[in-house]
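Researcher: Structure for this, please.
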Amino acid sequence: MSFGKRVTATKIELIKIRRSLQVGRMVHKILDDKREVLLKKIDEIIEEANKARGDIWSPLSNVYSAVYDSYMTLGTTTVESIADSTPSIMEVDVNVRRIVDVKIPTLSVKTREGGQDLSYGFTETNAFVDKAARLIKNMLPKICKAAEYENAIFSLAKELERTQKLINALEFVIIPHYEEAISFIKATLEEREREEFVRLKKVKVVLDRKKALEQV
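Model: Predicted structure, token format:
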């Protein structure tokens, strides 16, 4: 049945629309279940994200303090030169997992083979640089995990919004439209049946009169 077009009041059309209504209600139930699962998963990940954020705030303040001390003792040019010339010994692997059929990137920090604890020279550095480097290295996995949770919440929230729009369309537009069409067809068919009954009754009266006259 096409929306916006006049319904053909036939028994075949009634059967088709009843089937469509049944499918619509089934899809509505599936989407409603999906919405509940999404809400539950979002709540769980929000709780994990809050914990992950809580785990990085205090260490981050120590990182900022160590970096600040490095700049103050060595100067901006020296610290930035060390940063530019320091090779990366860590890398982030990005994989994908599915939550309620939503693709969620997962981040995994790993140290490259052959990487040392600190990958820069010690001639122009001091203890503050060493402290900042170690703190940052230890913080990266936690920062990546917090970012992973934040992205998961955003992705699931977008899917929840899309699911809710589909539910609203079914609940307030599609299903009521089918129900209205079914009521219209049933009423039309019943009216036709009544008209046909009255017509047949009149025909029977005429035939009975004709038969009576023939018997006289």
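Researcher: Any notable elements?
Model: Helices lie at 11-74, 76-85, 127-215. DSSP finds three helices and two strands in the chain.
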